[in-house]
Protein backbone atom coordinates (compact mmCIF):
# COMPACT_ATOMS: atom_id res chain seq x y z
CA UNK A 1 0.00 0.00 0.00
CA UNK A 2 1.84 3.05 -1.31
CA UNK A 3 1.50 6.68 -0.31
CA UNK A 4 0.32 8.54 -3.39
CA UNK A 5 -0.36 12.07 -2.10
CA UNK A 6 -0.42 14.38 0.93
CA UNK A 7 -2.64 17.45 0.92
CA UNK A 8 -3.08 20.14 3.53
CA UNK A 9 -5.94 22.56 4.16
CA UNK A 10 -5.62 25.61 6.41
CA UNK A 11 -8.89 26.08 8.28
CA UNK A 12 -10.18 29.00 10.36
CA UNK A 13 -13.44 28.60 12.27
CA UNK A 14 -15.21 31.42 14.12
CA UNK A 15 -15.73 31.07 17.88
CA UNK A 16 -19.11 31.86 19.39
CA UNK A 17 -17.41 34.44 21.66
CA UNK A 18 -13.83 35.74 22.02
CA UNK A 19 -11.72 33.60 24.36
CA UNK A 20 -8.38 34.45 25.94
CA UNK A 21 -6.37 31.54 27.29
CA UNK A 22 -3.87 31.89 30.13
CA UNK A 23 -0.87 31.39 27.86
CA UNK A 24 -1.91 33.93 25.22
CA UNK A 25 -1.55 37.72 25.14
CA UNK A 26 -4.84 38.44 23.36
CA UNK A 27 -8.37 37.04 22.96
CA UNK A 28 -9.09 34.73 20.03
CA UNK A 29 -12.10 35.27 17.80
CA UNK A 30 -11.26 32.25 15.62
CA UNK A 31 -9.63 28.86 15.97
CA UNK A 32 -7.12 27.97 13.28
CA UNK A 33 -5.77 24.55 12.36
CA UNK A 34 -4.51 22.55 9.43
CA UNK A 35 -6.21 19.40 8.15
CA UNK A 36 -3.85 16.80 6.69
CA UNK A 37 -5.11 14.30 4.14
CA UNK A 38 -2.94 11.38 3.02
CA UNK A 39 -4.05 9.19 0.14
CA UNK A 40 -2.81 5.74 -0.83
CA UNK A 41 -2.66 4.10 -4.25
CA UNK A 42 -6.15 2.59 -3.73
CA UNK A 43 -7.67 6.03 -3.02
CA UNK A 44 -8.19 5.42 0.74
CA UNK A 45 -7.73 8.58 2.78
CA UNK A 46 -6.27 9.13 6.22
CA UNK A 47 -6.72 12.33 8.18
CA UNK A 48 -5.16 14.29 10.97
CA UNK A 49 -5.08 17.89 12.16
CA UNK A 50 -2.73 20.24 13.98
CA UNK A 51 -2.37 23.80 15.18
CA UNK A 52 1.28 23.67 14.06
CA UNK A 53 0.38 24.40 10.44
CA UNK A 54 3.59 26.14 9.37
CA UNK A 55 5.89 23.63 11.09
CA UNK A 56 3.97 20.65 9.66
CA UNK A 57 4.07 22.16 6.17
CA UNK A 58 7.84 22.50 6.51
CA UNK A 59 8.10 18.82 7.47
CA UNK A 60 5.84 17.78 4.58
CA UNK A 61 7.87 19.85 2.11
CA UNK A 62 11.03 18.15 3.33
CA UNK A 63 9.60 14.63 3.41
CA UNK A 64 7.33 14.70 0.35
CA UNK A 65 9.93 13.60 -2.20
CA UNK A 66 10.74 10.63 0.07
CA UNK A 67 7.13 9.80 0.88
CA UNK A 68 5.54 9.56 -2.55
CA UNK A 69 5.43 5.93 -3.62
CA UNK A 70 6.75 4.75 -0.24
CA UNK A 71 4.99 1.90 1.51
CA UNK A 72 2.86 3.25 4.40
CA UNK A 73 4.07 0.51 6.79
CA UNK A 74 7.71 1.06 5.84
CA UNK A 75 7.34 4.73 6.65
CA UNK A 76 5.63 4.12 9.98
CA UNK A 77 8.27 1.58 10.99
CA UNK A 78 11.11 4.02 10.28
CA UNK A 79 11.50 6.38 13.21
CA UNK A 80 14.69 7.81 11.68
CA UNK A 81 12.66 8.96 8.68
CA UNK A 82 10.11 10.57 10.97
CA UNK A 83 12.87 12.31 12.92
CA UNK A 84 14.11 13.66 9.59
CA UNK A 85 10.90 15.70 9.38
CA UNK A 86 11.91 17.37 12.66
CA UNK A 87 15.37 17.91 11.31
CA UNK A 88 13.76 20.06 8.61
CA UNK A 89 12.59 22.21 11.60
CA UNK A 90 9.15 20.74 11.23
CA UNK A 91 6.57 18.81 13.25
CA UNK A 92 5.78 15.31 12.06
CA UNK A 93 3.26 14.02 14.63
CA UNK A 94 0.19 14.94 12.59
CA UNK A 95 1.66 13.33 9.44
CA UNK A 96 2.30 10.11 11.36
CA UNK A 97 -1.24 10.11 12.81
CA UNK A 98 -2.80 10.59 9.34
CA UNK A 99 -0.82 7.58 8.09
CA UNK A 100 -1.93 5.45 11.06
CA UNK A 101 -5.52 6.49 10.36
CA UNK A 102 -5.05 5.34 6.76
CA UNK A 103 -3.42 2.05 7.76
CA UNK A 104 -6.08 1.27 10.38
CA UNK A 105 -8.81 1.94 7.79
CA UNK A 106 -7.13 -0.52 5.41
CA UNK A 107 -6.92 -3.06 8.25
CA UNK A 108 -10.57 -2.34 9.13
CA UNK A 109 -9.68 -1.79 12.79
CA UNK A 110 -10.01 1.11 15.21
CA UNK A 111 -6.55 2.58 15.63
CA UNK A 112 -6.04 1.50 19.25
CA UNK A 113 -6.57 -2.14 18.23
CA UNK A 114 -3.55 -1.91 15.91
CA UNK A 115 -1.56 -1.27 19.08
CA UNK A 116 -3.27 -4.17 20.87
CA UNK A 117 -5.18 -1.81 23.15
CA UNK A 118 -8.25 -3.10 24.95
CA UNK A 119 -9.70 -0.16 26.90
CA UNK A 120 -13.25 0.53 25.74
CA UNK A 121 -13.73 3.77 27.63
CA UNK A 122 -11.39 6.33 29.10
CA UNK A 123 -11.82 8.57 32.11
CA UNK A 124 -11.31 12.23 31.20
CA UNK A 125 -9.96 15.08 33.25
CA UNK A 126 -11.38 18.55 32.66
CA UNK A 127 -8.75 20.97 31.44
CA UNK A 128 -9.58 24.63 31.96
CA UNK A 129 -7.84 27.26 29.85
CA UNK A 130 -8.72 30.67 31.23
CA UNK A 131 -7.68 32.74 34.22
CA UNK A 132 -11.26 33.15 35.39
CA UNK A 133 -12.43 34.40 38.77
CA UNK A 134 -12.90 31.85 41.57
CA UNK A 135 -16.70 32.02 41.35
CA UNK A 136 -16.70 31.20 37.62
CA UNK A 137 -14.25 28.32 38.08
CA UNK A 138 -16.35 26.94 40.94
CA UNK A 139 -19.47 27.06 38.73
CA UNK A 140 -17.60 25.21 35.98
CA UNK A 141 -16.42 22.56 38.44
CA UNK A 142 -20.04 22.02 39.54
CA UNK A 143 -20.89 21.28 35.90
CA UNK A 144 -17.90 18.93 35.57
CA UNK A 145 -19.01 17.21 38.75
CA UNK A 146 -22.50 16.68 37.28
CA UNK A 147 -20.78 15.11 34.24
CA UNK A 148 -19.03 12.66 36.58
CA UNK A 149 -15.59 14.26 36.16
CA UNK A 150 -13.43 14.04 39.28
CA UNK A 151 -10.18 15.76 38.22
CA UNK A 152 -9.96 19.39 37.10
CA UNK A 153 -6.86 21.20 35.93
CA UNK A 154 -6.71 24.92 36.60
CA UNK A 155 -4.28 27.51 35.25
CA UNK A 156 -1.73 29.54 37.20
CA UNK A 157 -0.52 32.58 35.29
CA UNK A 158 -1.76 35.59 37.22
CA UNK A 159 0.64 38.48 37.87
CA UNK A 160 0.75 37.63 41.56
CA UNK A 161 1.01 33.92 42.39
CA UNK A 162 -0.96 34.55 45.61
CA UNK A 163 -3.99 35.28 43.40
CA UNK A 164 -3.46 31.89 41.71
CA UNK A 165 -3.14 30.16 45.08
CA UNK A 166 -6.30 31.85 46.27
CA UNK A 167 -8.27 30.06 43.51
CA UNK A 168 -7.13 26.68 44.90
CA UNK A 169 -8.06 27.80 48.40
CA UNK A 170 -11.56 28.82 47.23
CA UNK A 171 -12.07 25.51 45.38
CA UNK A 172 -11.08 23.57 48.51
CA UNK A 173 -13.38 25.75 50.64
CA UNK A 174 -16.31 25.01 48.30
CA UNK A 175 -15.76 21.31 47.58
CA UNK A 176 -13.42 20.02 50.28
CA UNK A 177 -11.57 16.93 49.00
CA UNK A 178 -14.48 16.01 46.70
CA UNK A 179 -12.63 17.44 43.68
CA UNK A 180 -9.12 16.48 42.59
CA UNK A 181 -7.15 19.54 41.52
CA UNK A 182 -4.19 19.73 39.15
CA UNK A 183 -2.36 22.98 38.41
CA UNK A 184 -0.76 24.01 35.10
CA UNK A 185 1.66 26.96 35.28
CA UNK A 186 2.52 26.93 31.53
CA UNK A 187 6.06 28.08 32.22
CA UNK A 188 7.75 25.89 29.60
CA UNK A 189 7.71 28.70 27.05
CA UNK A 190 6.65 32.30 27.22
CA UNK A 191 4.25 34.55 25.42
CA UNK A 192 2.83 36.17 28.52
CA UNK A 193 4.55 37.03 31.81
CA UNK A 194 4.99 36.17 34.64
CA UNK A 195 8.00 33.95 33.83
CA UNK A 196 8.85 31.99 36.95
CA UNK A 197 12.39 31.22 38.09
CA UNK A 198 13.19 28.16 40.22
CA UNK A 199 12.39 30.00 43.46
CA UNK A 200 8.99 31.17 42.18
CA UNK A 201 8.25 27.56 41.19
CA UNK A 202 9.34 26.26 44.60
CA UNK A 203 7.24 28.86 46.43
CA UNK A 204 4.14 27.80 44.43
CA UNK A 205 4.88 24.11 45.04
CA UNK A 206 5.42 24.57 48.80
CA UNK A 207 2.16 26.52 49.12
CA UNK A 208 0.31 23.90 47.06
CA UNK A 209 1.51 21.12 49.37
CA UNK A 210 -1.16 22.33 51.82
CA UNK A 211 -3.96 21.65 49.33
CA UNK A 212 -3.35 18.04 48.34
CA UNK A 213 -3.12 18.64 44.60
CA UNK A 214 -2.65 15.96 41.95
CA UNK A 215 0.27 17.54 40.10
CA UNK A 216 2.01 20.80 39.23
CA UNK A 217 2.57 21.07 35.47
CA UNK A 218 5.31 22.98 33.64
CA UNK A 219 6.53 25.06 36.59
CA UNK A 220 9.84 25.75 34.76
CA UNK A 221 11.24 26.44 31.31
CA UNK A 222 11.00 23.33 29.16
CA UNK A 223 14.75 22.66 28.83
CA UNK A 224 15.67 23.32 32.46
CA UNK A 225 16.21 19.66 33.39
CA UNK A 226 18.43 20.59 36.36
CA UNK A 227 15.72 22.94 37.60
CA UNK A 228 13.14 20.16 37.43
CA UNK A 229 15.46 17.81 39.33
CA UNK A 230 16.04 20.47 42.02
CA UNK A 231 12.33 21.27 42.31
CA UNK A 232 11.28 17.63 42.51
CA UNK A 233 13.83 17.03 45.27
CA UNK A 234 12.39 19.93 47.27
CA UNK A 235 8.67 19.23 47.12
CA UNK A 236 6.42 16.23 47.61
CA UNK A 237 4.00 17.40 44.90
CA UNK A 238 4.09 15.44 41.66
CA UNK A 239 5.82 17.38 38.89
CA UNK A 240 4.56 17.03 35.30
CA UNK A 241 5.99 18.28 31.99
CA UNK A 242 6.93 17.38 28.44
CA UNK A 243 4.00 18.45 26.26
CA UNK A 244 6.31 20.38 23.90
CA UNK A 245 9.04 17.76 23.55
CA UNK A 246 9.14 15.78 20.37
CA UNK A 247 11.15 12.61 20.77
CA UNK A 248 12.04 9.62 22.90
CA UNK A 249 15.65 10.78 23.42
CA UNK A 250 14.67 14.03 25.15
CA UNK A 251 12.32 12.19 27.52
CA UNK A 252 15.10 9.67 28.20
CA UNK A 253 17.20 12.52 29.61
CA UNK A 254 14.36 13.82 31.80
CA UNK A 255 13.62 10.34 33.11
CA UNK A 256 17.24 9.30 33.69
CA UNK A 257 17.85 12.50 35.64
CA UNK A 258 14.74 11.82 37.76
CA UNK A 259 13.27 15.18 36.74
CA UNK A 260 9.58 14.22 36.48
CA UNK A 261 6.77 12.26 38.13
CA UNK A 262 4.35 12.59 35.21
CA UNK A 263 5.34 12.48 31.54
CA UNK A 264 3.10 14.40 29.13
CA UNK A 265 4.06 13.80 25.50
CA UNK A 266 1.35 14.56 22.93
CA UNK A 267 0.97 12.54 19.71
CA UNK A 268 0.63 15.68 17.60
CA UNK A 269 3.36 17.77 19.26
CA UNK A 270 5.80 14.84 19.31
CA UNK A 271 6.83 12.52 16.49
CA UNK A 272 3.51 10.68 16.75
CA UNK A 273 1.76 7.69 18.29
CA UNK A 274 4.64 5.19 17.98
CA UNK A 275 7.01 7.65 19.64
CA UNK A 276 4.50 8.31 22.44
CA UNK A 277 4.07 4.59 23.09
CA UNK A 278 7.83 4.22 23.52
CA UNK A 279 7.90 7.26 25.82
CA UNK A 280 4.94 5.92 27.82
CA UNK A 281 6.57 2.51 28.29
CA UNK A 282 9.79 4.19 29.38
CA UNK A 283 7.74 6.11 31.96
CA UNK A 284 6.13 2.85 33.08
CA UNK A 285 9.38 0.94 33.68
CA UNK A 286 10.64 3.91 35.69
CA UNK A 287 7.56 3.94 37.90
CA UNK A 288 6.15 7.21 36.51
CA UNK A 289 2.73 8.16 35.19
CA UNK A 290 2.06 9.04 31.55
CA UNK A 291 -0.71 11.58 30.93
CA UNK A 292 -0.62 12.89 27.37
CA UNK A 293 -1.21 16.54 26.63
CA UNK A 294 -4.26 16.77 24.37
CA UNK A 295 -5.16 20.36 23.57
CA UNK A 296 -5.06 20.19 19.79
CA UNK A 297 -7.85 20.18 17.15
CA UNK A 298 -10.37 17.37 17.30
CA UNK A 299 -8.38 14.74 15.44
CA UNK A 300 -5.39 15.44 17.68
CA UNK A 301 -7.49 14.91 20.79
CA UNK A 302 -8.95 11.76 19.19
CA UNK A 303 -5.47 10.41 18.35
CA UNK A 304 -4.46 10.92 22.00
CA UNK A 305 -7.64 9.04 23.01
CA UNK A 306 -6.53 6.04 20.92
CA UNK A 307 -3.04 6.31 22.42
CA UNK A 308 -4.48 6.18 25.96
CA UNK A 309 -6.73 3.25 24.98
CA UNK A 310 -3.57 1.40 23.92
CA UNK A 311 -1.88 1.83 27.32
CA UNK A 312 -2.54 0.32 30.77
CA UNK A 313 -4.95 2.19 33.03
CA UNK A 314 -2.56 2.35 35.98
CA UNK A 315 0.02 4.06 33.72
CA UNK A 316 -2.41 6.44 31.99
CA UNK A 317 -5.57 6.81 34.05
CA UNK A 318 -6.94 9.94 32.34
CA UNK A 319 -7.14 11.81 29.06
CA UNK A 320 -6.86 15.60 29.12
CA UNK A 321 -10.05 17.08 27.68
CA UNK A 322 -10.38 20.82 27.04
CA UNK A 323 -13.65 21.90 28.70
CA UNK A 324 -13.28 25.62 29.30
CA UNK A 325 -15.45 27.14 28.06
CA UNK A 326 -17.72 24.08 28.11
CA UNK A 327 -18.82 24.63 24.50
CA UNK A 328 -15.21 24.18 23.34
CA UNK A 329 -15.68 20.38 23.42
CA UNK A 330 -18.53 20.40 20.92
CA UNK A 331 -17.86 23.57 18.90
CA UNK A 332 -14.11 23.18 18.42
CA UNK A 333 -12.89 19.69 19.38
CA UNK A 334 -15.79 18.00 17.57
CA UNK A 335 -16.30 20.73 14.96
CA UNK A 336 -16.44 18.38 11.97
CA UNK A 337 -17.20 15.03 13.65
CA UNK A 338 -20.24 13.41 12.02
CA UNK A 339 -20.91 11.37 15.17
CA UNK A 340 -20.63 13.22 18.47
CA UNK A 341 -18.67 11.84 21.42
CA UNK A 342 -20.39 12.22 24.78
CA UNK A 343 -18.87 12.41 28.23
CA UNK A 344 -20.88 9.99 30.38
CA UNK A 345 -20.17 9.48 34.08
CA UNK A 346 -16.76 11.01 33.54
CA UNK A 347 -15.81 8.70 30.66
CA UNK A 348 -15.67 8.83 26.87
CA UNK A 349 -16.16 5.70 24.79
CA UNK A 350 -13.33 4.92 22.39
CA UNK A 351 -14.85 4.99 18.87
CA UNK A 352 -14.94 1.51 17.39
CA UNK A 353 -15.07 2.35 13.69
CA UNK A 354 -11.92 1.87 11.62
CA UNK A 355 -9.06 4.38 11.84
CA UNK A 356 -9.52 7.24 14.29
CA UNK A 357 -13.11 6.03 14.45
CA UNK A 358 -15.02 9.16 13.49
CA UNK A 359 -16.21 10.14 10.04
CA UNK A 360 -15.34 13.73 9.22
CA UNK A 361 -17.64 16.23 7.56
CA UNK A 362 -15.06 17.27 4.96
CA UNK A 363 -17.52 19.55 3.15
CA UNK A 364 -18.08 21.47 6.39
CA UNK A 365 -14.34 21.85 6.88
CA UNK A 366 -13.83 23.03 3.31
CA UNK A 367 -16.29 25.89 3.87
CA UNK A 368 -13.80 27.35 6.36
CA UNK A 369 -10.61 26.81 4.34
CA UNK A 370 -8.60 30.03 4.11
MG1 LIG B 1 -0.02 21.96 29.92
TrEMBL record:
It comes from the Archaea. One of its GO terms (molecular function) is magnesium ion binding. InterPro entries: Enolase-like_C_sf (IPR036849), Enolase-like_N (IPR029017), Enolase_C-like (IPR029065), Mandelate_racemase_C (IPR013342), Mandelate_racemase_N_dom (IPR013341), RHMD-like (IPR046945). Residues 134-238 form the Mandelate racemase/muconate lactonizing enzyme C-terminal domain. GO terms for biological process: carbohydrate catabolic process. SMART domains: MR_MLE (SM00922). Transmembrane segments: none annotated. Its cofactor is Mg(2+). Keywords: Magnesium, Metal-binding. It holds the Pfam family MR_MLE_N. This is Mandelate racemase. Signal peptide: none annotated. SUPFAM superfamilies: Enolase C-terminal domain-like (SSF51604), Enolase N-terminal domain-like (SSF54826). It comes from Saccharolobus caldissimus.
